[in-house]
Specification:
This protein has helices spanning 28-35, 46-59, 74-82, 93-102, 117-127, 137-150, 181-192, 212-228, 253-267, 280-283, 312-316, and strands at residues 18-19, 41-44, 63-67, 87-90, 107-110, 131-134, 157-161, 197-201, 234-236, 273-276, 287-297, 300-303, 323-326, 337-343, 352-360, 368-371, 391-395. With 415 residues, it is of the alpha/beta class. The strands form two sheets. Strands 1, 2, 11, 12, 13, 14, 15, 16 and 17 form a nine-stranded mixed β-sheet that branches. An eight-stranded parallel β-barrel has the order 3-4-5-6-7-8-9-10. Strand 9, helix 9 and strand 10 form a beta-alpha-beta unit. Mean pLDDT is 90; it is low at 1-5 and 13-22.
């Protein structure tokens, strides 16, 4: 008796759950006026993404690796490429495949510290990936074994991820990956003999508002390097670079880069190169979501997107996003505003975003709300729970709801 097997995929980020939406409109307001949408609409601003990427690439003193997990939508990846991003931090084979398909000349780095053996083989042999992160002796042995098994020659790059103590970032990442300092030093010694390129990496946590976190992490990195006694080619300062939200105003990006440069110079490592892995900082402002109010109960609004859709961080992490009311018929909104909580469309009571989200006091059923700063994780964390997996995507030309506070110069994008 033969056994038939099937694979089941969750909602693929910004691919399966989005219906075709070929229309491009100058502004979000025109989208709402023309379509009166009853399903969420993701409004992508590719020019804003390209400009932000350009500014970051120009300002950072090293190579910029976009963290693909943050937003893998092909339109976003294309905008990043237009902005000058040529390196991509991938955590899985599907991410590697989409980047390689789109950009044959891109530098792809496999930055997940724990990888399937087959993923290592395919990344190396089929997609020309040469750099791999590890945080254990077992992973080092796995990488060496599987790369050798392909029979495909190449210069192996190995990056040892160092564990950091818990910090003050909005989303702590210290509990899952990273080798302790003494173990990391041993891994560097073990990897040096087989690596054509050897580096260390760390991650201070997502949405880190404190530039000194990088200073402290680089100081710890220096201790590990000294203990290892080997020469390094790369220091990867990870991601975590923050963006503004209504209740979070980070220092200028230059303050972060200044601490990174100063900390790097103190290490006195001539010939060693810096890497960074920004995600949120490059794409957060590049997408907003338009939702419709389906009911109002006091200061609670029931909308057609929620924590199982684009607004996961508003529920789990309590993020507050910029919001504004849209009334395409031009009916004036009340002058005063109040703070609202939001409920998503599913039947789960946990589908709630406490906010508060400040909107005109006369918000009513049928109104539309634009929610900004959702280019980071807003699309790729969507699920199909309760069947609320449909959304549309449209490109718009108006400015982000919150402007990027740093600029590095004009960007020219080829037509």
């Amino acid at each position: 008796m033969s056994v038939v097997t099937r694979t089941r995929s969750a909602v693929a980020p910004l691919r399966r759950q989005f219906v075709a939406y070929p229309v491009r409109r100058p502004t979000v307001d025109q989208v709402v006026a023309a379509d009166r949408p009853e399903e969420p609409i993701h409004c992508l601003r590719p020019v804003a993404v390209a400009e932000t990427a350009h500014d970051f690439v120009q300002a950072f003193p090293g190579d910029v690796l976009y963290a693909v997990k943050c937003n893998p939508d092909p339109a976003v990846l294309r905008a990043l490429w237009d902005g000058g991003v040529r390196h991509f931090d991938c955590a899985s084979l599907p991410e590697i495949r989409v980047v390689r398909d789109m950009f044959p000349d891109a530098a792809i780095h496999f930055m997940h510290p724990v990888k399937a053996r087959g993923a290592i083989r395919e990344a190396w042999a089929r997609h020309d990936v040469r750099d791999f992160v590890l945080d254990s002796a077992d992973e080092l042995a796995k990488i060496r074994t599987e790369v050798a098994a392909t029979g495909v020659p190449g210069a192996l790059g190995l990056i040892v991820r160092i564990a950091l103590p818990k910090g003050s970032a909005k989303l702590d990442l210290s509990g899952k990956f990273g080798a302790a300092a003494d173990e990391a030093a041993g891994l560097l010694r073990a990897a040096r003999g087989c690596a054509a390129m050897l580096g260390v990496s760390f991650h201070v946590g997502s949405q880190c508002l404190d530039p000194l976190a990088w200073r402290d992490a680089l100081a710890l990195t220096g201790q590990v390097i000294q203990a290892s006694g080997v020469k390094l080619d790369v220091i990867d300062v990870g991601g975590g670079f923050p963006v503004a939200y209504p209740d979070q105003e980070p220092p200028p990006l230059g303050a972060f880069f200044a601490e990174i440069e100063a900390g790097f110079e103190r290490l006195d490592l001539p010939g060693t190169r810096l890497w960074a892995e920004p995600g949120r900082a490059l794409v957060a402002a590049g997408t907003s979501v338009v939702v419709q109010v389906q009911a109002r109960r006091g200061d609670a609004l029931y909308i057609n997107d929620g924590v199982y859709g684009s607004l996961a961080d508003a529920g789990t992490l309590g993020f507050r996003y910029p919001v504004r009311l849209i009334r395409p018929d031009g009916d004036p909104a009340a002058a005063g505003t109040i703070g609202f909580s939001l409920f998503g469309p599913t039947c789960d009571s946990a589908d709630m975003m406490r906010g508060p989200f400040r909107l005109p006091s006369d918000v009513a059923e049928g109104d539309w709300i634009e929610i900004g700063q959702l280019g980071a994780y807003g699309g790729c964390l969507r699920t199909a729970f309760n069947g609320f997996d449909r959304a549309r995507i449209v490109e718009v030309g108006d400015k982000p709801m919150l402007e990027t506070p740093y600029k590095a110069g004009p960007l020219q994008i080829a037509a």
